[in-house]
Specification:
binds 2-amino-2-deoxy-6-O-phosphono-alpha-D-glucopyranose, 3-stranded antiparallel sheet, alpha/beta, Rossmann fold, 254 residues, 9 helices
Length: 254
């Protein structure tokens, strides 16, 4: 894991966007794994600015999103398809036909999940996977207790996640109880991983993911076994890390 501690989340978003923009320039047919939540929004804003400035071309980029709420139609303003359109796809020259979100409304969810996995493989696998982290250490919707070799499947959300995400819905009762999520095993197959974590309410999860033992109790800790995982933090999210000075000395080249 390469830990990059930034003064602000804005600086972290810019640095992460630089990594992605450069990767797109190097491989115009890149396959991106994309995340939702409030965390990556600033990075998407930077990518939109890069695209508008002619620094990056999304026309042949392909993408697979991490997760989708079960039962929310794409036009629901809290569906992750809606989120991706509003926060990235509508503002860059990506072909929406090349953007995929897990099947939240399939008649046969298990078959649709297997197809999603097969489609990722057929696209050549994910080159760069973007991740946020839940305050309970989840990645995508792999909640604590998720197998570290899990694949795309229907999952139940924890009470903590339902509470955390209630701010986006009219009330907590409106938050879906299930989602379709790539598994930890699916995520770990990405060639490169960029995880973004900002704010004091992520500090405990970051500490567990980066410096705790590898355990399905903290699904993000699986990234310790990934050969190319970068973790971009602001000072607040990095607050509990014991080896902050060491990480700083390692990332000064960035
Ligand atoms: C959601 C998403 C995750 C995301 C997490 C954190 O539950 N499924 O992919 O990383 O919440 O969200 P936020 O970035 O809003 O803190």
């Amino acid at each position: 894991m390469q830990i990059v501690i930034c003064k602000t989340k804005e600086e972290a978003c810019r640095k992460a966007a630089d990594v992605i923009s450069a990767a797109i320039r190097g491989n115009p047919r890149i396959v991106l794994g994309l995340a939702t939540g409030s965390t990556p929004v600033g990075m998407y804003r930077e990518l939109i600015a890069d695209c508008k400035a002619g620094k990056v071309d999304f026309s042949t980029v392909r993408s697979f999103n991490l997760d989708e709420y079960q039962g929310l139609p794409p036009e629901h303003d809290q569906s992750y398809r809606y989120f991706m359109n509003a926060n990235l796809f509508d503002h860059v020259n990506i072909d929406k036909a090349n953007t995929r979100v897990p099947p939240g409304q399939a008649a046969d969810t298990a078959a649709a999940c297997a197809q999603y996995e097969a489609d990722i493989k057929a696209a050549g696998g994910i080159d760069i996977q973007v991740l946020g982290i839940g305050s309970d250490g989840h990645i995508a919707f792999n909640e604590p207790g998720s197998s570290l070799v899990s694949r795309t499947r229907l999952v139940a959300l924890t009470q903590q996640t339902i509470r955390d995400n209630a701010r986006f819905f009219a009330s907590e009762a409106d938050v879906p109880r299930y989602a379709v999520s790539m598994g930890v095993g699916t995520i770990m197959e990405a060639r490169k991983i960029i995880m973004l974590c900002f704010g004091a309410n992520k500090a405990a999860a970051v500490k567990a993911a980066v410096e705790g033992g590898i355990s399905q109790f903290c699904p993000a800790s699986a990234l310790q076994m990934h050969p190319d995982a970068m973790v971009f933090l602001d000072e607040e999210a990095a607050a509990d890390l014991a080896l902050k000075d060491f990480y700083r000395s390692q990332s000064c080249a960035l």
